[in-house]
Amino acid sequence: MVQTILGWLMVAIAVVLAFVDIPFALLAILVIGLVSGFMNPLEDVGTRVAYYVLAAVLPTVANNLDQIPALGGYLNSILDTFAVGIAGIALANFCLAVVNNLTSSDGDS
């Protein structure tokens, strides 16, 4: 339930930021992404890699949307802002994966 609320909150803030400039809103989206990533860690390596790739590639894809005359700039802004939240999720999962690898290696030696 909390995961769904955090996801919708990221989408809502991303859409609002396309039309209104709010100070520190990108930081808020990053923190929401970090909280979401720490609360719901991705155990599947493939899904984790998909989040890494999406966080890296989504801003590049969004920049191509500027070519659409009326809506392109807004769509670019929405996807760029949403990519910050996805990067927060990816960063949290990366940190959890590193911690899990370090703690599991302690028991093997």
Largest sheet: none
What is the count of β-strands?
Answer: 0
The number of distinct structural domains comes to 1
Helical proportion, percent range: over 70%
Low-confidence stretches: none
End-to-end distance, in Å? 39 Å
Question: What is the tally of helical segments?
Answer: 4
Approximate strand percentage: under 5%
What are the salient characteristics of this protein?
109 residues; 4 helices; elongated
Give a written overview of the molecule:
There is one protein chain. This protein is mainly alpha-helical and 109 residues long. The protein has one domain (2-104). The protein has four helices and no strands. It has helices at residues 2-19, 25-39, 45-63, 72-108. Helix 1 (2-19) runs antiparallel to helix 4. The mean pLDDT is 91.
Lay out the secondary structure.
Elements: H1 2-19, H2 25-39, H3 45-63, H4 72-108
Helix pairs in contact: 1-2, 1-4, 2-4, 3-4
Short recap of the structure:
The chain has about 110 residues and is mainly alpha-helical. It has helices at about 1-20, 25-40, 45-65, 70-109. It contains four helices and no strands.
